[in-house]
Write a structure and sequence with these properties.
Layout: H1 8-24, H2 28-69, H3 78-121, H4 127-173, H5 178-183, H6 185-216
Length: 224
């Protein structure tokens, strides 16, 4: 199943709809459960989208810094190369914010889903059906944990990466010359390692998110 086009309003609507169920039903957790699951899956889809965008932003911002660090000013003057680096840094800062703003809500949406799912399994009196449900729960939880295992630390690492970019931009702003460029070489090497690590973790995050959505999305109507 392909990833759906996820939007923040859609996820918010699903959570609001679940809250309405809670206020008017005698068994709110049971009736609202599919809506809550759909909201969680929407956030997982959003994490996938923003992880991919973050990956591109990291590559672009590091390449712009590396142009300066390598002194490659044959295609454009140093001032223009610096301006492009600052622009890429600003874009990376905004992208880190967008990634952060979907990882947190994903975790918040998932917690009550898995808690209630586990509780509901204990109410099943048919032993065979309960065991089957427990196995499916364990597999789904393992898939979800695979997302958070990389998404949460990647979010923190991305924030740190962006701070380093901004530090380098500030350092060079009024001191863009050969000796200053020499002084950032060690920092650029450290950022290169961070960028490679983030690229790897974001790829893992995207793969885990796709696996969860493919297996756990609510059935769609034919033709959708």
């Amino acid at each position: 199943m392909p990833l759906r086009t996820a939007t923040l309003p859609a996820a918010t609507f699903a959570l609001t709809f679940a809250a309405l169920f809670a206020g008017c039903s005698s068994t709110p957790s049971r009736e609202a459960a599919p809506v809550q699951v759909d909201a969680m899956v929407s956030w997982i889809e959003r994490v996938h989208v923003e992880a991919e965008r973050s990956q591109l932003s990291i590559a672009e911002s590091f390449e712009r810094l590396n142009v300066i660090a390598a002194g490659r000013f044959d295609k454009e003057p140093a001032a223009q190369a610096y301006a492009r680096f600052v622009q890429a840094t600003d874009e990376a800062t905004e992208q880190a914010k967008r990634f952060r703003e979907c990882v947190g809500p994903m975790v918040e949406a998932a917690q009550p889903v898995f808690q209630q799912w586990q509780k509901d399994l204990q109410t099943i009196t048919n032993e065979k059906l309960r065991q089957r449900g427990e196995m499916r729960f364990a597999v789904a939880k393992q898939r979800y944990d695979a997302i958070t295992k990389v998404a949460v630390p990647a979010q923190q690492q991305l924030d740190g990466y962006v701070k380093e970019l901004r530090d380098h931009a500030a350092f060079l702003a009024h001191d863009l010359n050969a000796s200053a460029i020499q002084d950032i070489q060690d920092g650029v090497k450290t950022l290169a390692k961070a960028a490679l690590g983030l690229d790897r973790d974001l790829k893992s995050c995207m793969a885990a998110a796709r696996a969860y959505v493919d297996e756990s999305s609510l059935p769609a109507a034919p033709g959708r």
